[in-house]
TrEMBL record:
InterPro entries: Cell_Adh-Cytoskel_Orgn (IPR050958), Ig-like_dom (IPR007110), Ig-like_dom_sf (IPR036179), Ig-like_fold (IPR013783). Keywords: Disulfide bond, Signal. This is Ig-like domain-containing protein. GO terms for biological process: homophilic cell adhesion via plasma membrane adhesion molecules. Residues 58-117 form the Ig-like domain. Pfam families: Ig_3 (PF13927). It comes from Desmophyllum pertusum. GO terms for cellular component: plasma membrane.
Length: 117
C-alpha cells in the first residue's frame, strides 16, 4: 500500500531494496527519498534523498523555414527551442555569427533570407 501504481516504477523490498524506473520520462525528474524503519514501527532510523535529473533531447521549431522580403521591409525569423539542459541558440549567416539583428539588416540586407543549418 502507498506504493506507486504506475507500472513503469517498480519497488523491490529485497536486499538490496531498489526502486526501478522503466523508460524514464521527463516527469520522473525530481527528488526521491528513501527512509529506513525498524520493523516495530516508529520514526525512520535513516533517510537519504536522491536528486534525479532527466535530460531531454533538444526540440526545435523554426519559422518561417524560407522567406522572401522586399529590400527595406522588416522580417522576423523565430526559433523556439526546448530541452534539458536548455539548448544554446546562435544565429548565423554564411557561417558568421549574427550578433545584432539591427546590425544584420543595416549592413547585410538581402531580398531572400535563409537559415544556416
Amino acid at each position: 500500500m502507498g506504493e506507486p501504481q504506475d507500472p513503469h516504477i517498480v519497488v523491490d523490498r529485497n536486499d538490496p531494496a531498489t526502486l526501478h524506473i522503466k523508460d524514464v520520462r521527463r516527469e520522473d525528474d525530481g527528488i526521491y527519498k528513501i527512509e529506513v524503519f525498524l520493523q516495530l514501527g516508529g520514526n525512520a532510523i535513516a533517510d537519504h534523498e536522491i536528486n534525479l535529473t532527466v535530460l531531454d533531447a533538444p526540440s526545435v521549431d523554426i519559422n518561417p523555414t524560407a522567406a522572401t522580403v522586399i529590400e527595406g521591409n522588416n522580417i522576423t525569423l523565430t526559433c523556439n527551442a526546448s530541452g534539458k539542459p536548455a539548448p544554446v541558440i546562435t544565429w548565423k549567416k554564411a557561417g558568421e555569427s549574427v550578433l545584432s539583428v539591427s546590425k544584420f539588416f543595416r549592413h547585410n540586407c538581402e531580398c531572400k533570407q535563409t537559415r544556416d543549418t
